[in-house]
Write a structure and sequence with these properties.
By secondary structure, the chain is an alpha/beta fold. Helix content is 49%, strand content 11%. It contains twelve helices and eight strands.
């Protein structure tokens, strides 16, 4: 992945394009499991309500995300994409998107330097243009834009001591971009109209920026919507937790003692999944109502 040292825009950057056929087969299966998005395609594809709209995504590059990307494109959007996590990318999903012509920048096992380079690539459209809409997960795309914009406004944050290696990676990238184009981020945000954010971490960042008067665009808090918290948090985590543990460790869950910290919607789903696999589940909770539910 050596060409990530350059800021030159690439058509895509993935692990292996030969995985595209496998990815396409799984996308076909996923379409049958995602009737909401498929209904949107059927209703609006002919009208192209997003015709020409530039959308950047910083969201797990999975098979399900591929269905979202292709829905946005069917509605007319011009999409660029990166993952929001260095380990979550399904390489066959990324390959299928690249083969379909989507500028996607994601592979499983990215370094921090590669991750933030991918985010930069997803945010930068040909001709020096930026996104008009951002689909963010964790707030990293929004963070990079705001820190770059503040640097061009005279902020000295990039020269302050870093609290982590990742923070230093972000600062080094911003310095490099600034050296090549001192007006990059101001030009990029000219037509930026809004961002949607679907994680607690990202929403907290947005509220903090808003309170300081630094938030550049309107933001939609997807994280706290009922259709997210009552479905994705509860049922999504119930599906994915045990799968993730087994993929990572290959251990039997039955008979293990599992401690679930917190019994909100995520905790409820995790506890149910572990209990269903035969684990002895212990819940810790400081909220008396949630504790009573447990």
């Amino acid at each position: 992945m050596s060409d990530t040292a350059s800021l030159e825009l690439l058509p895509y950057k993935i692990r292996d394009i030969l995985l595209a056929e496998f990815g396409r087969k799984e996308i076909t299966i996923a379409e049958n499991e995602m009737p909401g998005l498929m209904a949107i395609r059927e209703k609006y594809a002919a009208q192209k309500p997003l015709q020409g709209v530039r959308i950047s995504g910083s969201l797990h590059m999975t098979i399900q995300t591929a269905v979202l990307i292709e829905t946005l494109r069917d509605l007319g959007a011009n999409v660029r994409w990166a993952s929001c996590n260095i380990f979550s990318t399904q390489d066959h999903a990324a390959a299928a998107m690249a083969e379909a012509g989507v500028p996607v920048f994601a592979w499983k096992g990215e370094t921090l330097e590669e991750y933030w380079w991918c985010t930069y690539q997803a945010l930068t459209f040909p001709g020096g243009l930026g996104p008009q809409l951002i689909v963010d997960d964790g707030g990293d795309a929004t963070l990079l834009i705001h820190k770059g914009y503040e640097l061009e406004e005279g902020s000295d944050w990039v020269n302050e001591p870093s609290s982590s290696r990742e923070e230093q990676v972000i600062k080094d990238l911003l310095k490099k971009i600034h050296a090549e184009d001192p007006n990059h981020w101001h030009a990029l945000v000219k037509e930026w109209r809004g961002v949607s954010e679907e994680t607690t971490t990202g929403v907290h960042r947005l509220y903090a920026m808003h309170q300081k008067g630094k938030l550049l665009v309107p933001a939609i808090n997807v994280n706290d919507s009922v259709t997210k918290s009552k479905f994705d948090n509860l049922y999504g985590c119930r599906e994915s937790l045990v799968d993730g543990i087994k993929r990572a460790t290959d251990v039997m869950i039955a008979g293990k003692v599992a401690v679930v910290c917190g019994y909100g919607d995520v905790g409820k789903g995790c506890a149910a999944a572990l209990r269903g696999q035969g684990a002895r589940v212990v819940v810790t909770e400081i909220d008396p109502i949630c504790a009573l539910q447990a």
